[in-house]
Amino acid sequence: MAVFESYRANLEVADLAPTVDFLRDVLGFAVEVHEPAMGLALLRRDGVGVGVVRTPNPAVNETTAGYVGVSDVDALYAHCLRHGGEITTELTEHPWGLRDFVLRIPGGHRLAFGQRIAPAS
Fold first, then answer.
1. Strand-strand pairing, 40-45 and 30-35
2. Is residue 41 within 8 Å of residue 35, measured between CB atoms?
3. Topology of 8-116 in CATH?
4. Cβ–Cβ < 8 Å for 46, 10
């Protein structure tokens, strides 16, 4: 069976700069590719990638654009609050063993960040 080795959310936006700046400056993503003329930026942090694509009619999911597993969700939540992150769903502990929150980023997209706190049932 094939091993899935990475995940990259692709986010459509009207303007690359605010989203790229937020992902880099607040969430610590490194910019791997930034081609404003082509309307594309690719960013990575640890094993997670994010593609930011300029489009004339950007679409934003009604829920979240992706779910990122992290090792210390409480620390990331506090970091986002300190840096003015717009939390749309507060840090929540779910009965299925996850603790997570949802953050709105420039461009309107929402990313969920969570940590497993109990074994999956």
1. antiparallel
2. yes
3. 2,3-Dihydroxybiphenyl 1,2-Dioxygenase; domain 1 (3.10.180)
4. no
Does the pTM of the predicted model rise above 0.70? yes
Gap between the Cα atoms of 36 and 24, Å rounded: 16
> Cβ atoms within 10 A of the Cβ of 115, count?
18
Is the distance from CB of 70 to CB of 29 less than 8 angstroms? no
Q: Count the neighbouring beta carbons within 10 Å of the beta carbon of residue 13.
A: 23
The SS3 assignment for 21 reads helix
Burial zone of 60 (CB within 10 Å; 0-12 exposed, 13-18 middle, 19+ buried):
middle
pLDDT at 68 over 90: yes
The pLDDT tens digits of the residues spanning 69-101 come to: 999 999 999 999 999 999 999 999 999 999 999
- Give the integer Cα–Cα distance in Å for 114 and 120: 14
Q: Return the domain boundaries, the chain.
A: 8-116
